[in-house]
Write a structure and sequence with these properties.
Blueprint: E1 5-9, H1 16-29, E2 37-41, H2 47-53, E3 60-63, H3 80-85, E4 90-93, H4 96-101, H5 106-118, E5 122-127, H6 131-135, H7 139-151, H8 156-161, E6 163-166, H9 180-193, E7 202-206, H10 211-218, E8 225-228, H11 235-245
Parallel strand pairs: 1-2, 1-8, 2-3, 3-4, 4-5, 5-6, 6-7, 7-8
The protein binds 2-phosphoglycolic acid.
Length: 246
């Protein structure tokens, strides 16, 4: 039985004051016995702040990217050890914005997932096709290539503990959401690609998820929760998405 997971991806948003208000509102709605695992992935500079706000709370927290290097002369980078040091449980790797704006390829993404797991962090590994790739009928080929990079590097045990997020690039921040059937088709395919680990790995959907679209998505058998961007910045909306997953 896979427990539902809802993750907020704050992207490059927030301030000390707005973070505090948002986290306090979330704490008020997410009880310690929540039927849903909830995590927020915040800008690295605010990890220490959310760490102190979330002491003894059910909501876990993490980062949006990580270096493959352990330490040393990598200006601007942040290591898995540093994330662990601040109590992070999760880290997003391979978000399409990293793939697009920072030229991250599937092999690098898989290496990030591996170093994260070696440090005891849960990687949330993002995969997804562009609009052009979907329109040309290449969705499953693209997903297969992205997932193959992960399965070639991670052990079965690591794959079971990892989280995959299917985020069609055309649905991110656009207000367009994959239909539940479109998402289910890809989620099922991802699970098949994971082989014997597939039944255990949590596979989240991401891309303009809102409370009103979440319900039908979460009814699909292979959708275990959501990676939420814009709506994660609104406590009421994010809480409603969490409720829908419960
Ligand atoms: P969105 O972002 O919910 O704003 O579309 C999702 C994501 O990029 O993780």
């Amino acid at each position: 039985m896979r427990k539902s997971l809802v993750v907020g991806n704050w992207k490059m948003n927030g301030s000390l004051a707005s973070n505090k208000a948002l986290v306090k509102s979330l704490i008020a709605t997410v009880g310690v016995d929540s039927a849903v695992d909830v995590s927020i992935c915040v800008p690295a500079i605010y990890i220490a702040q959310v760490s102190s706000l979330l002491t003894n709370q059910a909501i876990s927290y993490g980062a949006q990217d990580v270096s493959i290097h352990e330490e040393g002369a990598y200006t601007g980078e942040i290591s898995v050890g540093m994330l662990s040091d601040l109590g992070c449980s999760h880290v997003i790797v391979g978000h399409s914005e990293r793939r697009q704006y920072h030229n991250e390829n599937s092999e690098l993404v898989a290496r990030k997932a591996l170093v994260a797991q070696q440090a005891g962090l849960t990687p949330i590994i993002c995969v997804g096709e562009t609009q052009e790739q979907r329109q040309s009928g290449n969705t499953l080929t693209v997903i297969q290539e992205q997932v193959a990079a992960i399965t070639s590097l991670l052990s079965e045990q690591d794959l079971k503990a990892a989280v995959i997020a299917y985020e069609p690039v055309w649905a991110i921040g656009t207000g367009l959401t994959a239909t539940p059937e479109q998402a289910q088709e890809v989620h099922q395919f991802i699970r098949e690609q994971l082989g014997s680990a597939g039944g255990s790995t949590r596979v989240l959907y991401g891309g303009s998820v809102k409370a009103d679209t979440a319900v039908a998505l979460f009814l699909q058998p292979d959708i275990d929760g959501a990676l939420v961007g814009g709506a994660a910045l609104d406590a009421t909306e994010f809480s409603a998405i969490i409720s829908a997953a419960g």
